[in-house]
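Methods — Computational structure assignment.
A single polypeptide chain was analysed. Its primary sequence is given first, followed by the predicted tertiary structure written as structure tokens.
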Amino acid sequence: MSRAPGAPRYGSLALLAIGYAILVHYTNSNANAKPLGVVLASAPPLALGLALAWRSSYRLPALALAALLAGLILSHWRILQSKYPLVYLLEDVGVYALLSVTFARSLVRPRVPLCTYWADLVHGPLPAAVARYTRKTTAAWAIFFVLIGATSLTLYQLASLPVWSAFSNFVALPLVVLMFLGEYAVRRRVLPPAHRTGLWASVRVYLDSSRPTRTAGQ
């Protein structure tokens, strides 16, 4: 049985994400894990900042800003030890808000809805019925990410920290997977056979769309 291209890389990333989620939940459930909580809460913005700085045309100033950010984290270490769950929340809700805005923004004409763009990469040009379906799918994803973010925010405010953490780290992502599988099942029922992309092919299109041949959602 042949192995899907890129599967080992994506599998490693998935294991890394699972390990990170377990550690984050541990810090949210253990009062003695505050130092680790600060490290884990600070890691994503620092990693993103360093990656953007390294790719920037102004690498040295950008790296200096990243170093300044690291210095600010160290200088406010005690404050962060009492507030790191809030940092987790801001990162969590921020990601879902960004995803929702990205999908919703692509619905504004004359931009191409993201799901339409991805379908067009595989089966373009698309018939009108398929284009309408993919536009509705794009809207559904935008609404879905709003609901996930709103649920996370509500649980953080009303439930205990471990309950919110369990949702954020162990429920939200499986819900994304279920949404994807549900859309795939609907797609197989309502679209003509020529436009029923295989599950792994769909995943590959979504994962590889960071290097599009033409601009999506613009």
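Note: The chain is about 80% helix and 0% strand.
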